[in-house]
Amino acid sequence: MPAAPTPGALQPTNSLPSSVRGACPHDCPDTCALITTVENGVAVRVQGNPSHRPTDGVLCTKVSRYTERTYHPERLLQPMRRSGPKGSGQFEPVGWDEALNDIAARLGAIAARDAQAILPYSYAGTMGQVQGEAMAGRFFHRLGASLLDRTICASAGAEGITQTLGGKVGMKVEHFAESKLILIWGSNSIGSNLHFWRLAQQAKRDGARLVCIDPRRTETADKCHEHIALRPGTDAALALALMHELITHDWLDHDYIASHTLGWEGLRDRALQWPPERAAAVCGLPVQQITDLARDYGTTQPAAIRLNYGVQRVRGGGNAVRAVACLPALVGAWRHRAGGVLLSSSGHFPVRRAVLQRPDLLDGRTPRTLNMSTIGDDLLREATPGFGPKVEALVVYNSNPLAVAPESGKVQRGLAREDLFTVVLEHFQTDTADYADYLLPATTQLEHWDIHTTYGHTDVLLNRPAIAPVGQARSNTDIFRALAARMGFTDPCFQDDDETLCRAAFGDTVDFEQLLAQGFATLPLPDAPFAQGGFPTPSGRCEFFSARLAAQGMDGLPDHLPNFEAAGSDPRHPLAMISPPARNFMNSTFVNVKSLRDIEGEPVLEVHADDAAPRGLATGDMVRVFNDRGEFRCRAEVSRRARPGVVNGLGIWWRKLSPFGTNLNEVTSQHLTDMGRGPVFYDCLVEVEKA
User: Fold this and answer.
1) pLDDT of residue 15
2) Element (H, E) at 310
3) What structural domains does the chain harbor?
């Protein structure tokens, strides 16, 4: 049973148990519908809503323990002001008025010189449209602060799929249950897409063949019929070799290609340069495994691909997604509702972001844009004509950059600057929070309104507050409203309350009364969206060739681009490292929930026996993982989950909860992907030795 809320928090007078409909806020394609049971003002249980078809009453281990997070003994319950050196984590309590007045005064003084010296930093700590960027966007647009390029998770894949299909669109997830062949490409669905996995299992029971394509032998790979353990960053080479075989064996839907695609001749010529033997050498796979997969894909209908974002965290990530996204059109898989590809469904949602975030408040100003994936470099840069002003203030919400951003040694040095004013809105004292000048307690999902799209199904979800805010916590929207008022922003939009913002998110395109009544509403979309073409591209076709990319001086056709740090390119650092998520964490969220951390144990590096033996490593050894950017330490686990030449660092642990106070992002780089300006977390060479 959770502890009682802090005395003084507003409590309902009705003591009877109640059930409140909500939505999971976390960065997961499933976006589950929640039911929170409340007794005497205390949330006692969070469950999946059985009436919501995609959720079907089932939650992952993480979110089923959400009350443990909301009532965590280390939850921030009042504003705090730094009282010790930066990074010491030493704070003293301060009142809301005093904190907000000082923050507004300091931001105002910086803005008077150049508002671009103020940088917001946020991502998907909540995926909600309201507590994410609604009031925050209005505040920073009105201020004229630097814009943030939010690239850290999915931008390369999003760009790749958009250049090919026209948007972040694809097949409906529920129809995977009817597929006869499912390629699970770059996804550990059991850990990161549980509700899709249940559909894949249903298809498997009905005779479907499941193939997992992933460098790591994941829990998902264990349950599939076949695991294709390619090298990191070689997915485009594999996709092109599959195309080669489809062409040479004429496993093609010529009518679909002629009627509904663009650039076939160029793609054909490109693919014929990739016989299976060439791809096998690049990918580190047996030739027969590639030819067999091509035969299965070319001769099985309906065939479906569940593509996920692990594919795109390398130099050629956008090209890899483009190549994979071309495959369904070649075999006419789109003709079937159980055929095609799904990376993200988020492009289907008619969310009115400009109404919520109000970029018109810039009033003709064009602030610079800084990439969140290069925050380490940007915090250390001086003012220059090309860069603009030095970053003087950082406002962090819905993110923990010191744990999640690449090359975190630089991020730490930047946050430690005495002349950097940092404000952090948080639930807990994270790694980043330790460097704050002001630490402001934010509400959790059980304590505020929000409205959610998703990238794994096609329902809109509404989240109602189930309990009053614990302690003195305030919602993101409330904090930015209060700052706007103190900075003299009198625009009427800063008076909009959260329910008004929820109603504005979709306007009349979604029935808000239905959301209030049942907690979700399904978008009216066709079952087989591209059976007759009609892609949301400029041509209306699946664009094998992208004129938009060619106009930017890029290759209009998908191709394999070797990693920045390709296998064998650096004898001092011979091992490729990928950093997939630990099963019981969500990026850096939930790491401080003790029951979940106890399941994970401690930071682990999975090493194949072939790589462990020459280094004298055994399971349980403390190891040093290093390259020229930095190092971190963790326990080795000699494991069949690692393929030879590749080590798997499971993340993302908080630095302060890791050995020697660092995590795996000490060694990842700030290089950016071929398109979408994303990070290359899985394009990283290291060496490993016993510590």
Assistant:
1) 56
2) none
3) 80-153+372-457+474-519 (3.40.50.740), 156-343 (3.40.228.10), 575-690 (2.40.40.20)
